[in-house]
């Protein structure tokens, strides 16, 4: 990733070529003012070999290496902190442009057969979902496409995925836009980032390995399928319109009826591999966890290809909710399954480092307790 006027070294005043160019071969060539075959070479060094200095681009003439090196840097963003959970989950605090307020968290969750990177799309969030720690952090700004892709580049570096080789099984195999922010309120940059992540001449991730999670920005949901061809997760959390409005204020703008109609449209446009919608459902004691709630949920989604992901609430400092107990979560899950809907209970990951679902917040006071790597 080519970056920036204030690079990770904190001293650089080199031009932010990456911030200006879209991250494909043609735009890199134009932005660097080099012939297209050089743009192709540079693009390959960056995205398939993970090279971060022009001097390491062995097939560029020395004079060009030096010229580029004087003008530009390759900067993924600065890792301020990286914490490793006892379960192998890693949370990274990443800062951009040397702006102390411009930092987000990304989380890498390794599993037996895949490794999922949870990326952020905004710094803070404007939506204030009541159960979400990020919702207590005001929106600062949208992330740019390079800043979003940079989270992947950092995680892929840490997971030793570079240089990429043919038929390699990458450690960072999947990406979910489930970190800080509402991705559909930053649709333009999220779309550009998805295009870079799926560009076959570079990172080349299969679109169905990417999932965009939304709190319910209904008008944009069909475009996740028709324009980006990636998967959809919906933070649902209640099938009762009033309860949902109470815990997720966005429901007052896009109520359940409108949300479900957009989900049906998504399914019509989606490729077979990305068609199944994941409905996220955080289990809040006494709020949304009765048998009646489970039946209401099934009635709402039964005609869609779905998976229900039940998430025991992950407490954070100052939160007002308690998680439903494990017997209640299990009964809720079994009830949903008994009516023919795929459902599972998410195993909490990284909760010892506040990296679990709904816990991300990039203020520095949230990152102290676990070992810093
Ligand atoms: S759940 Fe998502 S949309 Fe809601 S406050 Fe948290 S980050 Fe924002």
UniProtKB/TrEMBL annotation:
Its main location: cytoplasm. It is found in: Cytoplasm. It comes from Coemansia erecta. Its cofactor is [4Fe-4S] cluster. Keywords: 4Fe-4S, Cytoplasm, Iron, Iron-sulfur, Metal-binding, Methyltransferase, rRNA processing, S-adenosyl-L-methionine, Transferase, tRNA processing. It holds the Pfam family RlmN_N. GO terms for cellular component: cytoplasm. One of its GO terms (molecular function) is 4 iron, 4 sulfur cluster binding. This is Radical SAM core domain-containing protein. Residues 111-349 form the Radical SAM core domain. One of its GO terms (biological process) is tRNA methylation.
